[in-house]
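hiii so um. not sure if this is the right channel but i have a protein structure encoded as tokens and i wanna go backwards to a sequence. like what aa goes where. can anyone help
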């Protein structure tokens, strides 16, 4: 294929993406020529493009390398690729307008549009995701999942952008030890009068893995507003789950520096786990409340009324923060006075009901089993692990069988649980429930 044809096709895809018009074609082609270090092309009539954007990109990059305009250093290459793919990505205001237009038809159409855009422009590294292996292990709590995947290097932080979740990444070129974001776009989402940013995770672990991050760089908080926002998000995106990490670092500082929620189109093992014990909350006669059969203590609330879930969630959170139980040496406060009880919350729609899972967590040293577990690639107890999906370090791939790894993961979760799965632990959990 001639480079002229490649450039023409790439310009055609750029116009089809909606950021440019046919009138822009000559300009676009000349910009592409300059970027790959070519001086001339043979104008060819545009025709239907049958080559994928990734293949066209590879041809452009190859020619740029031959011409010596881009270094072979992998980081430089990624920065250059993102700049080329930026042509296939309309500006943020236009992407937001397209999203809104699709949303008028259905929320699903809107996320389909945005997800496809992020795949076509290579923002989501789908090739990496395809290489990822997932397998399951059957346990007494149902199937747990394990993914074998290398963890990407942590970006080197400077004053700008403050972190990878900040809005100021949108369009950022990238630099040494910091990823290229030229082709990133963020959907502005209004949650109770506050502006939040909705975008997809570039290195996704699961289907349509999305992040909704605060407009300002501020630490994770957990309060009534959190539950209200989770409810708003599943109202706006009813086909997604959404979850909030704990507001305390559970063995690592990661995840708590910039307020955000994780969302996506996946049913995690926890979502499939059943409620085993129902209890009543006096103030909410219409609510279903119960304990979930799970290695960590999980309270599940179901109601058609969002506001009831917000209030009940807040009450349980406040009770848990201050809760001590001497019988099992559980203290709300560490000897130095810091609070150590927190929770992770996950919200989802179940037909007409809203469902809120509250996973009780304890940041005291005896529950930090994740730090020591050598087979886990992530050393902190995060939302994904709590929902039953472990990311396993690559080295383990050949050496162990899946059920052994599944049992190990289960043990780690049980050690992280403030109420152990043992009879004494479960009795203590019931005492907490009775205090509600
Ligand atoms: Zn930030």
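sure thing!! here u go:
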């Amino acid at each position: 294929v001639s480079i002229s044809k490649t450039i023409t096709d790439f310009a055609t895809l750029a116009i089809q993406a909606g950021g440019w018009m046919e009138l822009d074609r000559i300009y676009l082609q000349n910009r592409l020529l300059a970027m790959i270090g070519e001086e001339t092309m043979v104008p060819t009539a545009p025709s239907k493009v049958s080559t994928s954007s990734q293949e066209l990109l590879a041809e452009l990059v190859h020619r740029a390398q031959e011409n010596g305009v881009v270094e072979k250093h992998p980081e430089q290459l990624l920065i250059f690729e993102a700049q080329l793919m930026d042509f296939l990505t309309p500006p943020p205001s236009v992407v937001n307008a397209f999203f809104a237009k699709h949303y008028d038809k259905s929320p699903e159409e809107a996320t389909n549009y945005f997800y496809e855009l992020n795949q076509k422009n290579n923002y989501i590294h789908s090739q990496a995701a395809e290489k990822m292996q997932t397998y399951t292990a059957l346990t007494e709590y149902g199937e747990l999942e394990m993914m074998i995947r290398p963890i990407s290097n942590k970006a080197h932080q400077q004053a700008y952008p403050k972190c990878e979740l900040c809005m100021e990444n949108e369009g950022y070129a990238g630099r040494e030890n910091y990823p290229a974001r030229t082709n990133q776009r963020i959907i502005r989402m209004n949650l109770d009068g506050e502006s939040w940013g909705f975008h997809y995770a570039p290195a996704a672990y699961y289907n349509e893995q999305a992040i909704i991050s605060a407009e300002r760089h501020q630490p994770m908080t957990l309060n009534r507003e959190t539950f209200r926002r989770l409810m708003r998000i599943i109202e706006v995106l009813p086909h997604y789950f959404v979850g909030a990490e704990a507001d305390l670092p559970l063995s690592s500082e990661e995840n708590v520096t910039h307020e955000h929620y994780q969302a996506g189109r996946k049913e995690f093992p926890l979502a499939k786990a059943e409620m085993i014990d129902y209890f009543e909350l006096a103030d909410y006669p219409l609510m279903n409340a119960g304990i979930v059969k799970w290695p960590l203590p999980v309270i599940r609330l179901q109601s058609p009324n969002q506001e009831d879930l917000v209030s009940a969630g807040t009450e349980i959170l406040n009770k848990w923060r201050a809760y001590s139980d001497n019988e099992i040496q559980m203290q709300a406060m560490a000897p130095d006075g810091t609070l150590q009880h927190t929770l992770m919350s996950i919200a989802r729609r179940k037909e007409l009901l809203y469902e809120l899972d509250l996973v009780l967590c304890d940041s005291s040293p005896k529950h930090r089993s994740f730090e020591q577990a050598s087979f886990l690639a992530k050393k902190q107890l995060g939302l994904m692990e709590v929902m039953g999906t472990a990311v396993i370090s690559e080295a383990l791939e050949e050496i162990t069988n899946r059920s052994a790894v599944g049992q190990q993961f289960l043990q780690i979760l049980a050690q992280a649980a403030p109420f152990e799965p043992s009879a004494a632990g479960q009795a203590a959990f019931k005492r907490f429930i009775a205090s509600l």
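oh and The radius of gyration is 24 Å.
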